[in-house]
Structures are given as C-alpha cells and as structure tokens.
Records
---
Amino acid sequence: PYGTEITFGGLSFAIAAAYQGIPTRVIFIEDGVYALSGLHMLERPSPAFNIQEVIDAIAGSDNLQFFCFTPSLQKRGITKNPKMNGVLDIGIQELGNLLFYSPNGVAANHERVFFF
C-alpha cells in the first residue's frame, strides 16, 4: 500500500534488477494500485521523489516494464493517474500471460516472482 516503505523498496529492488540486465516486470495489483491513483505531492522543498515521480522517471528503461491490474482499480472505484502512461493497463488474461510466460527473447526454464 502507498504510504509504506514496502512500495518504494519493491520499486528499488526492481530497478536494481533491471539495471543488472534482468528482465523485470512490476505489476501493481490489489492495494498496490493506490500508488498509481490521484496526484501524489510532497511538501516542497523536498529533495525526495514520490513514487509516481520515480515511476515516471524510469518508465521505458531497458529491462523494466510496469503494469496496472485494472480489475483492482475497478474494485476500489479509482482510476489511474493519466500521467502514469508508462504503466500499461492489463486484465486477467494479460496477468496470466505475464506470470506464466517468459518475456520475449528470454530463454529460461524458470522465473522468480516476488510479491510485496
């Protein structure tokens, strides 16, 4: 959930993996979708970035993809911030594909999935 260090820690872990050449996919699901809704603002002046700023800054990086599970948004009656265009909307079918099929160009007989 937004407001905990778990979200930022998960993003940091994903960024580190991607920058080490590991194809990494981050899926915002269940309460994790709150990180993508609304407009998050920190009190200024602040040297820190909020989660939405971090996602916006690194979206489109090599080996790193972001996804939002739209049924989680719908269940909570919220929408994704339109500025989060680097985060692709997915449904049930796409979620299954992401979890059970390796990314294009990856020949591996295993995959690690971390849930935060």
---
Amino acid sequence: MFTKPEKRLIDENYFDIIMETEDYIEFKSKNTDHCWIIKKIKYTNTKKMCLYHKHSIEERYYHQHYEALTVKQVIDNIKGHDEYVLKIRLLEKSILK
C-alpha cells in the first residue's frame, strides 16, 4: 500500500492518474504523454518499487524501465526521462526545419 507522503510525490500538476490499486499506481506524464506504473514489490527485500513504462496511452503493453527503493527515486527517474525525451523532440524539430 502506498502511504500518503508517497502518493503526494505523484504531483497532479505533473501527472494524470489513470488507475490506483493497493500495490500499484498508473499515471501519465503531462509533459511527454508517456505512461508509467509504479508497482510495490512485496516479496523481496532488495528492491521495493518496480517502474514500468510505455510511450503512449494507445500502446498495449508496458516494459520494465527501472527498480528503486523509494517512490521519490522513481519519480526522479521519470522526470529525468521526461527531460531527455523533450530534448530529443526539440532536437528533432530543429533538424526538420
């Protein structure tokens, strides 16, 4: 189960929540439209969070993207990924001009 402080890290100004259950939260980045799932892993002591990713809501399947100990680490990873994607998109636009 996600705690209230963990849920607050999934900022609704930055993300749209798609679905929430006891052990995972699915959401979409407003910056890139990439979709994410944070799943709490109950059966291991080494990694507590597993992050899954897909490039659009229309895509059918998620792929595993990252593992972490905390929701904060996961959110930081997503925001870093968003920065990378936005830089690539900007570069592609400048090349196509």
---
Amino acid sequence: MSVINLEIVKRRLRVIGDFNDEDIQQALDGAEQEACRFLNRTQLPTLPQDWPSSTEDVPSDSDPVVADAIEGVLLLVLASYNAATPEEVAGYRRAAETKLYPYRLCIGV
C-alpha cells in the first residue's frame, strides 16, 4: 500500500473518475519502491511537523513525507504511466533522481 494518496497522483495526471485506479495504483506502488531503492531506504524520507526548528534527530513514521520525495515519486509515476518514448521516460527519471538525491543514504565517497 502506498504512502502517497492516490488522489494526489490522479490530480497530477489530470485523471477524473476511477476507471484507471488499479493501473495508477500499480504505477504508484512501483514508483515508491523504485524511489526507496534509489534512496537506499526502506521508506520514503519524512520531516517532523515543526521542521526546521525540531530537535528530533530521527523523524518518526507519523511525520509527513517530504515534498521533494513526493514530487520525485510523482515524476516516476509519470514515467511509468504517461511517457510515450524511451527518451521521455529517461527525462522523467532524471528529474525524479534530482528531486530525490538530497535524501539518499550510504552513497559513499
């Protein structure tokens, strides 16, 4: 099950109604998994509600997913669901990686 609400994705895709909900949900699930693999994380990154003034060292699961990560996942959904050419897919994926990169873990030296 996705962390990101299906309605957010449908709004970005400009989809009205629920005819393609299963396909969109599958693209969303895959995009979230791809983002987590790219980030070397088990879940999408979150920030405390009162960030940046928070003193919390490790965000909890109840904190919202950071907006950049949501944007990155939405770009991956667009690559999977909407892109018509390999070049378009690659463009969406590069844009997604740009949004996600600051949250990567264990990237080495």
